[in-house]
Specification:
The complex is a heterodimer.
Chain A lengths: L8 H7 L3 H33 L15 H10 L11 H17 L7 E6 L2 E5 L7 H22 L3 H32 L4 H7 L5 H4 L1 H14 L11 H4 L9 H26 L7 H4 L10 H22 L5 H32 L2 H21 L32 H13 L8 H7 L2
Antiparallel strand pairs in A: 1-2
Chain B lengths: L1 H9 L10 H23 L3 H21 L3 H26 L14 H26 L16 H12 L1 H23 L10 H10 L38 H4 L3 H12 L35 H5 L1 H13 L1
Helix pairs in contact in B: 2-3, 3-4
The chains are: A mainly alpha, B mainly alpha.
Subcellular location (chain A): Cell membrane; Membrane
Main location (chain A): membrane
Membrane topology (chain A): Multi-pass membrane protein
Amino acid sequence: MNPMPPPGYTQTLIADDPFWLTAIKVLVIFAGLMLVTLFMIWFERRVVGRMQQRPGPNWNGPFGLLQSLADGLKLAFKEDIRPVLADKAVFFIAPVLSVVPAFVAWAVIPLGPEVSIFGERTALQLTDLPVGVLVVLACSSIGVYGIVLAGWASGSPYPLLGSLRSAAQVISYELALGLSIIAVVLYAGSLSTADIVAAQSTGWYVWLLPVSFLIFAVSMVGETNRAPFDLPEAESELVGGFHTEYSSLKFALFFLAEYVNMVTLSAVATTLFLGGWMAPWPLSLIPGVNEGWLPLVWFFGKTLVFLFVYVWLRGTLPRQRYDQFMRLGWKLLIPVSLLWLMLVATLRVLRAELTTGQILIVGGVALVLLVGAALLIPDQAPPDEDPEPTIVTDYPVPPLDLAVPPTPKRRRRAVAGSREKDPSGETVSAGASREGEP
Amino acid sequence: MSAVGAIAAAAPMTGGGEMSTGESVAFWILGPVALAGGLGMVFARNAVHSALWLVLTMLSLGVLYMVQQAPFLGFTQIIVYTGAIMMLFVFVLMMVGRDASDSVVEVLRGQRLAAAVLGVGLGGLAVAAVAETLTAVGPVGLGPGYGPEARGNVQALGTSIFRDYLLPFELTSALLITAAVGAMVYTFAGQVRRKQAGQRERVVERLRGPLAQYGSRSGPGVFATADSVATPALLPDGSVAPASLSRIIEATRRERLDADIADVASESGPAGEVDARALRGGDGHGDGHTDGHAGHDVGSTHDRLSEGSHRATGESEGAR
């Protein structure tokens, strides 16, 4: 494996980019994200289709790849409706506010190592700020404004409810997201995304910080309003949620923002936990595999894995109830990440101040104490023998040991007589009498 | 903001003093925008518009911080003020309602005068502080060469907060947490703590309760003397509504039930068991055709209830 650059190297590498190179990078990232969105819509429909035993879009273009392009064009030519009660300016700004931050976050994501573009040495990254991770968080916190204002400006109740839900949801899950990032930053010793990737050259953080990774993965889904956490646009409750009143290109912008956000957060997760553009383990043994343009393949491969999980979740899990969702966020994810953070910080301090032998001794004593404490916990009481309630009632329910009593003699005689006399019988019913009337 | 990032990255990391071209351009764009945001906040009629103007000001300030080599401060400004605090404001404004407007009646006497005096005073203080800063204090670059061991702004900030000023920082967080807990206590103090029963508990409770709690009751607005399906509905003129008569019940002949009724009524009935199970009118013996000769006038409940209107029907069926 090639030696990793020192911290801050990427920053100086990018800092002397000429203007035309920055412009090219911006253009490529923008166009690439549009293409990825088109691909993602097709990918989601195909994968969900396969999961639901149907083919999915397969008619336009090879494998139906052009289907989302056709849908997008159709969307652009639809009538742009604005409700009478809508707040004109805010109604227009909201979709823009939701889509722009989703793109901006890509500025700090490292797509690859140092390469040469037209003779200019640079890194495959638009810019590397010393606080790169915060850019992602800032972008997602601005993006909420789009959703919240869309609901408010529509001037109708369903979007308003959707946007209220969305505001509460994104604020709650942003906390868990930020807390799970802190552990990564503690280990990498830097907020810069390029430095975080470089710090993972010895081992990905998903192995070192599995709890952080899990919390990040869950809050990532909550942050992007995707199933099973798509409460702001719950079709069964809120029609379309915050974008109920939107149509045409404005709706398309929301659609774009949702998918770009998915891709963005998947890329962030890849950067923070899966080693960014570095090759996965068996491949990383081959020399030269982490150089040049090849790492783009690893990066997008890992991102695609996250995107597949997004689709998989949507195809598998039903939507959560709002209180379940909030309970998960506030009562599970945030306390667990706080405890985990304490643990990680303690370990960091211990590593700095104690030798390995001392850590092992302290850890062993702590383990013994924990096991002893676990033995002190009383066994769980056995459950009730019969948790089913006995139905105490005089409602005519047949008893389980029902023995049919003998028919009385008088009736037996009458039955026998009637069978001999008239086999067809005669009854009058309401339905029959109605049919009989002219 | 990507453009701003490019500017921030492209801005030469000078040690201080002179201002680069990029920085002045950014200032002359962001300064007026921030000012416009402040004015818009004051003069906007709608509360949400007001909040949005304030968001604009905060964003401009955040970007100004970034341009001035304090990216951590800038992004924290955006995340905390714009993302969390202003979002809470907008949230509350939306809950209050889009048409809520401020009352223009002055409730505190002398409020305007006090506000004017204090406002002018605050302005004077701000101007004095800025003037002092501009004249007396020399600028210090916050770039990569800044701070202990020259590790840059973010690391220096971390060292300051968590090493030099740890106690004030911890005290401030304790104060904030106390305030948050206090707000929660005041919110929930008046409410009675009641355990939320789950779905299963509610079902068990219902099944353990009296019979009247399960099964459906007559709908609201219905005058009913009985809940039985055998009770026919009445039309406004007092006659029986044919559609309310059950096919199954009507298909059971009165004569079939006679023996059962007698059984129940007599003392020599089956083991003296007088309950609903003793009525075996439909006990599945397939002996529905008890009396072929019986006329329509002595037929089912249906016949007896609406004799006149259904006589013809009975005849037609008898002829069949």
